[in-house]
Amino acid sequence: MAFHLPATEIRHYLxxxxxxxxxxxxxxxxxxxxxxxSAPRPQDVLGEHGLSLVPDVVACKDGKxxxxxxxxxxxxxxxxxxxxxxxFARHAEETGCEFCLLVPERCxxxxxxLLASLGMPELSVLYL
Length: 128
Fold this sequence. Notes:
This protein has helices spanning 6-25, 79-95, 108-117, and strands at 30-33, 45-46, 52-53, 57-61, 64-70, 98-103, 124-127. The chain is α/β, with parallel strands linked by helices. It has a single domain (6-127), classed as Trna Endonuclease, Chain: A, domain 1 (3-Layer(aba) Sandwich), CATH 3.40.1350. Strands 1-4-5-6-7 form a five-stranded mixed β-sheet, with helices on both faces. It has a two-stranded antiparallel ribbon with strand order 2-3.
């Protein structure tokens, strides 16, 4: 997990909570979340530089698995974000699941710029 300022950490935690609640209401019954006591922690994924990374949320429904990475506006351009996005996208492709980035709605233009600059414009994005 990346270091966040307290206010940013609270926003991130709330976003993860909203996502998990939405997934539960949508019928996902296998939910893992890195930051919640109410859900088991997702498995680590080995990054390109040998770092062990943990996605924020992993959810399954009807055999379909989705990996979610949650970013606050402040964390979009953090140094570790690129490696997380590349690692989880690669892992999703290798394992036949989906990968989705969740960001605040006001971040639309910033996310498009970030993904274009990383050569990942096709990455699925959800806005909260």
